[in-house]
Amino acid sequence: MTVAQKQVSRIETGIQGLDSIIEGGLIRGDVHLLAGGPGTGKSILAANFVFNAVTGHGEKAIYATFEESTEYFKRNIKRVGIDLHPAEQAKTLRIIDLEALRGKELESNISLLISAVKETGSTILVIDSLTALLYACETRFELRTFMKTMYKSLKELGTTSLMTVSLPNGATLGTEGFLVDSVMFLENWMDQSQFKTRFVVLKMRGTNHSKKYHSVILSPKLSISKF
Ligand SMILES: Nc1ncnc2c1ncn2[C@@H]1O[C@H](COP(=O)(O)OP(=O)(O)OP(=O)(O)O)[C@@H](O)[C@H]1O
Ligand SMILES: [Mg+2]
To answer: Is the pTM here over 0.85, yes or no?
Structure first.
């Protein structure tokens, strides 16, 4: 490891095959985006990261769900071998259901999350997903302003943030990708007559990351590997 690499503090994701292609983990304090098509494993990847961080590395996390209720989310994640209940009991993880806030001012969502991070002393914040919030923006200008405010607030907070965003199949990332520190991308592709999932790091500031597509296995345990 070089001196420059040592100076950057990272949180290991603990996900098999991921840390080795991003110089050891996600840069602490940065705002990371995990984009991808529907059902590509964004929530499973985010939940694995949080689970590994709070159970193995002494981190504290907030996991905010927007589209799935917390119970539904926990049940689905348990099916891929991740039981979040003990971490919740131990108060190293708080899962917040933000569905109820839909339709309210976007800023109120951000301030609620910021208060929760401060109150719990969380080092990690996951927002799963941003999609509903982005749809609440009526114009591209509003969306850009929202992303800028969000980015600035999260950086000031100093937490390591991971936000997911759902993109329709084949769609590319718009403004969202420019206002974050890293963009990881999951997509389904057709291999003969079967859907498979692949992962690529599109950008990661301060990181000499892999530029290749990697193959993703979601179950029984999430792993990322060379093609
Ligand atoms: N128990 C399981 N065994 C195998 N594969 C599973 C299992 N549970 C879920 N999956 C796969 O994971 C996908 C869902 O993963 P996940 O919920 O993380 O996707 P997502 O990208 O967050 O989806 P959305 O865009 O709807 O939020 C399913 O479409 C399925 O392919
Ligand atoms: Mg999801």
So the answer is: yes
Ligand 2 mean position to 27 CA, how many Å? 23
Spell out the per-residue pLDDT of the chain, length 227, in tens. 555 555 799 999 999 999 999 999 999 999 999 999 999 999 999 999 999 999 988 999 999 998 788 999 999 999 999 999 999 999 999 999 886 555 556 778 888 899 999 999 999 999 998 887 777 788 888 888 888 989 999 999 999 999 999 987 777 777 666 789 999 999 999 999 999 999 999 999 999 999 999 999 998 899 999 88
Ligand 1 probe mutation, 218, 219, 221, 224, most atoms within 8 A of CB: 218
Strand partners, 61: 93, 124
Looking at domain 3-225, its CATH architecture is 3-Layer(aba) Sandwich (3.40)
CA 145 – ligand 2 centroid, Å? 24
The domain limits of the chain are 3-225
Ligand nearest to the CA of 127: 2
Torsion angle of the four alpha carbons 186, 64, 180, 114, in this order, in degrees rounded to the nearest 10: -170
Pick the residue whose CA is nearest to atom 14 on ligand 1: 39
In this structure, which ligand is nearest to the CA of 39? Answer: 1
Query: Which residue carries 């759902």 as its tokens?
Result: 166
Pairwise CA distance, residues 227 & 172, whole Å? 22
Tokens of 104: 């309210």
